Amino acid sequence: MLFYQKHLVKFTIAFLICLTLLPSLTKADGPKDNIPDQVRRIPGLGVEVPAAQRQQLEQGLAKLKASLDQLKKNKDARIKALIPDVEIYHRAVRCALAYQEFFHEREIGTGLNLLKQGQERADQLLKGEAPWTRQTGLVVRGYISKIDQTVQPYGLVIPDNYTFSDKSDYRCDLWFHGRGERLSEVNFINQQQRSRGQYTPADTIVLHPYGRYSNAFKFAGEIDVLEALEATKQNYRIDDDRVSVRGFSMGGAACWQFAVHYADRWFAANPGAGFSETPLFLKVFQEEKLKPTWYEKKLWQMYDCPGYALNLFQCPTVAYSGEIDKQKQAADVMELALEKVGIDMVHIIGPDTAHKIHPDSKIIIEEKMDSLARVGRQRVPATIHLVAYTLKYNRMAWVTLDAMQEEWKQAQIDARLLSGNRVEVKTENVTAFTLKMAAGESPLDMTQPVTVQVNGMKLEAPRPMSDRSWEVSFHKSGDGWQVGPATYEPGQLVKKHNLQGPIDDAFMDSFIFVSPSGTCASPTVDKWVKSEMQHAVVHWRQQFRGDARVMKDVEITDKEIASSNLVLWGDPQSNQLIKKIAAKLPIQWTADSIIVGDKQFPADHHAPVLIFPNPLNPEKYVVLNSGFTYREYAYLNNARQVPMLPDWAIIDLRTPAGSQYPGKVVDANFFDEFWRLK
Fold first, then answer.
1. N or C terminus: which one in the chain shows less Cβ crowding within 10 Å?
2. Is 502 helix (H, G, I), strand (E, B) or coil?
3. Per-residue pLDDT tens digits for 187-239
4. Where is the signal peptide (predicted)?
5. Paired residues of 473 in beta bridges
6. Three-state secondary structure call for residue 564
7. Cα angle vertex 345, ends 341, 351, to 5°?
């Protein structure tokens, strides 16, 4: 850590000197966006649509909706699967018109044109035809997201030589776009139908995810990338061993985080500019005076990349920066982090170049990426390094982190395949893990016993099966290790992958806002609940471009409990589901008090927000009184878009909700690894 801090000081001094030479660059995203009480709206309001054009748009929307309704009655599974390719046009224009998101007069004409294109696809699909599915070049398609059941668009560049009847698989590059405060669905679709982007390698499908707008592909934006990639794999022949991640500016930031979090999925990563962590970037780039709470510092580790640098052992990385680009800072920080773990980073630098990709650098980058693509990713590398701060990102090739001693503190697993059917594993801050190789992947001798040495302790493991698959779990017991998964008392809750918090994790999977059918015991709480729920609904659409599903507490059935995280608004008096589960939550909420361990808070002007395994279905979350936790102030800079609250918090409602917090946070913490109060 000392090495990292020492080099960061040197870097900061040098970087500040560089900034004095670039006065024109320091204006954007500068101090004017550091005032929480003066936050500009993002996205800003667009132009007023003239009455005649509004009528044209409404008529086009009505006609396309009628066609969509007709298509949805079709029982042909092939037709149903293609409806999202039509629906993206309708939703894009509908949202732009309803929420005043035509940001320039010319975009109104774009909207009319998109409606024509959507209607053309609808008419074709009504006849059982879908020519766009066999189109090369620029293609825009859609899928239905598991998160909120809204249709989301994604762009593709299909190589001209792609053959739809062949069986050969193609390389696929994911390209993450830069920040765009006016990147509505209308503008994204229009752009993807006009521009091939920065790179179009030969024999390569390029996937351009929307990422649900401008969030640096975090949270729902992260899931959008994974869902768009899966949709692409369903529709086109993708070689799983030749998929890469690439991006520039905000897209470069996305590339860094996808590279370190999912390092085993890509044959290479090619980040350019952007940011790779929160605190130093905001201090230097944004000139912001940071005053984070202790838990905010911990939560930075969800998306800050330097601490995960060792994971890039599994992912060949070719970084790019312009020589005089202030966002060169991102790669410089990662170069120091990689040096700390013994890796020398390849850093292509565009000479005398600001915030763009130098043409000579492009040639060098493409040569390296082509070489890496020919090799492809290693499915079963002999050596694995996995670093994690949360069980959310817990897998690397054949190693899975199952449980941690303490989340938000660095955990590490180093595993090596040795000769003589031996495996060596070293761990830190780990209490359970699994080694697993799929059928045909195990290089171990299936006729001989396997010895796994964990932190110096030798253990006998099962042999590989006849299909060359192999799986064995280990758990910590006292000061030693035992073969087999960890066991718990019946009903014991434990943090695990995708059930580990914090609050924001509930919005990375299917969720439903559950509104109260009654009135809260306190008028102050009742007013706050209504305001915060409305805020959550509005900002989910504005910032994550979805329509939050909202149901009354009395409408929730076993189906919703089984399938979705439930976000419950209200108190035990107003919301029947909160009343039903209140006694099983670690924070007690009575008519008079909110009780957290030995602390009590008056219930007339306090409210709890929390995330917890749903007592009615512990495989899903329940959330009390919170949407995603970063607010308007964070919209101004993508590096701020990180979790702002841990697993639970108590809010004093006498302080009004603002651009950073839903009120005054008077207490907050994480639950322990067994979902208990610390």
1. N
2. coil
3. 999 999 999 999 999 999 999 999 999 999 999 999 999 999 999 999 999 99
4. 1-28
5. 434
6. coil
7. 150
Give the integer Cα–Cα distance in Å for 442 and 241: 17
Give dist(CA 128, CA 210) in Å, integer: 28
Assign 405 to helix, strand or coil. Answer: coil
d(CA 86, CA 64): 9
Sorted by where each starts, the structural domains of the chain and their CATH numbers stand as 132-375 (3.40.50.1820), 395-483 (no CATH), 503-669 (3.30.379)
- Please tell me the total number of residues recorded for the chain in this structure: 678
Tell me the three state secondary structure of residue 541: helix
Name the pLDDT band for 26 (thresholds 50, 70, 90): very low
* Lowest-confidence pick of 15-24, 70-79, 508-517: 15-24
Residue position matching structure tokens 């010895």: 451
CB of 485 closer than 8 Å to CB of 473: yes
Note the pLDDT of residue 32: 86
Residue with tokens 């650098």: 361
289 contact partners, CB below 8 Å, separation of at least 6: 34, 283
Write out the E strands in 292-410: 318-322, 346-350, 383-388, 395-396, 399-404
**How many other C-beta atoms are found inside a 10 Å radius of the C-beta of residue 346?**
16
Contact criterion met (CB below 8 Å) for 437 and 423:
no
d(CA 579, CA 565): 17
* Beta carbons of 303 and 279 less than 8 angstroms apart: no
Q: How confident is the model at residue 479 (pLDDT cuts 50, 70, 90)?
A: confident
Q: What span, in angstroms and rounded, lies between the C-alpha atoms of 70 and 85?
A: 15
Count the helix, strand and coil residues of the chain and give each as a percent rounded to the nearest 5. 35, 25, 40
> Do residues 402 and 394 lie in contact, with contact meaning Cβ atoms separated by under 8 Å?
yes
pLDDT, one tens digit per residue, over 317-370 is 999 999 999 999 999 999 999 999 999 999 999 999 999 999 999 999 999 999
Q: How far apart are the first and last CA of the chain?
A: 27
Residues 42, 48, 53, 55, Cα dihedral to 10°: 90
**Beta carbons of 177 and 215 less than 8 angstroms apart:** no
Nearest to 566 by CA among 517, 605, 521, 616: 616
Paired tokens of 396: 């690397």
For residue 422, what are the contacts with CB-CB under 8 A and spacing of at least 6? 450, 451, 452, 453
- C-alpha span between 664 and 661 (Å, rounded): 7
